[in-house]
Write a structure and sequence with these properties.
Elements (H helix, E strand, L loop, with lengths): L2 H23 L3 E2 L5 H14 L4 E4 L9 E4 L13 E7 L8 H9 L8 E7 L2 E7 L3 H7 L2 E2 L2 E2 L1 E5 L10 E8 L4 H9 L3 H9 L3 E3 L2 E2 L12 E4 L3 E11 L5 E8 L1
Antiparallel strand pairs: 1-3, 2-3, 4-6, 4-9, 5-6, 7-8, 10-15, 11-12, 11-13, 13-14, 14-15
Helix pairs in contact: 1-2, 5-6
């Protein structure tokens, strides 16, 4: 069993234990924040166990990173019980900070990724969803993101309305191979994109990919270290040179 499979099996074992504790103790239990790959694993467990009293929640509608809550039948509304908080970072509007800046600063404080949910960036403002046990630590520990001074406050009532913004990219590719798509995204040669992949710097749907030849499809999400996060939205038609014209959205 390779390292990835071991990690998945350990994760699935923890989810099974969480469900068993809920059934035996008659009390709700919650996971940390899940990525899309882990949500697929959770779906397998829920199907196997036929457990139906569960809810995903990430702090606002359409959150990408969510917690799983499993609960006994007597619980009517599980949402208020989820152990998450929102830390609001305030800074000058003319300072440009990105998702990567905030994630890097938080993880440099030895905070694990699964303790962090979505990071929503607006002009002069960022809302970061966190597991509630680390909220005070973040507020007290972080006064700067990079070289930019920030003020961190706990948002008592998480009421977030957020519309993800994208930058549209388009162009032609020879095929839907990962290295071809990356060449369009990064403006690098195919040789350079293969080096990125083999170095473990490319993630597709939350799984690190080491093969440049895997085929991508619409709605696949690609993260490239140093370049950002993208979603393959659609392909329209073949050109006269027998290439595919595609559209990609970059998360901003």
């Amino acid at each position: 069993m390779n390292t990835v499979n071991k990690k998945d099996e350990f994760f699935k074992s923890n989810i099974k234990n969480m469900i068993e504790r809920t059934e035996h103790q008659n009390y709700p239990h919650f996971s940390l924040f899940l990525d899309s790959h882990q949500k697929i694993l959770v779906a397998e467990i829920l199907q196997q166990t036929k457990f139906t009293s569960f809810q995903y929640y990430g702090g606002y509608p359409d959150a990408q990173r969510v917690m799983l809550g499993v609960y006994p039948e007597y619980v009517e509304d599980i949402i208020p019980l989820f152990p998450l908080k929102v830390v609001e970072f305030q800074y000058r509007k003319n300072d440009q900070l990105t998702h990567r800046d905030f994630l890097g600063a938080l993880m440099s404080c030895q905070i694990k990724r699964e303790m962090l949910g979505d990071i929503l960036i607006e002009q002069g403002l960022a809302n970061v969803f966190v597991q509630q046990t680390i909220v005070d630590y973040i507020v007290n520990q972080i006064q700067k993101i990079g070289h930019v001074g920030v003020k961190a406050v706990i948002k008592q009532t998480p009421s977030i309305e957020y519309v993800q913004k994208f930058r549209e990219l388009s162009g032609t590719v020879a095929s839907f191979r990962l290295d071809c798509i990356l060449s369009l995204i990064t403006k690098l040669s195919r040789t350079k994109t293969v080096e990125l992949i083999q170095a473990g710097k490319v993630v597709v749907n939350d799984v690190i990919q080491f093969s440049p030849s895997i085929q991508l499809k619409a709605k696949d999400i690609i993260s490239v270290r140093g370049y950002g996060k993208f979603i393959l939205t659609e392909s329209s038609h073949k050109t006269k040179k027998d290439r595919y014209f595609i559209f990609i959205h970059q998360f901003i």
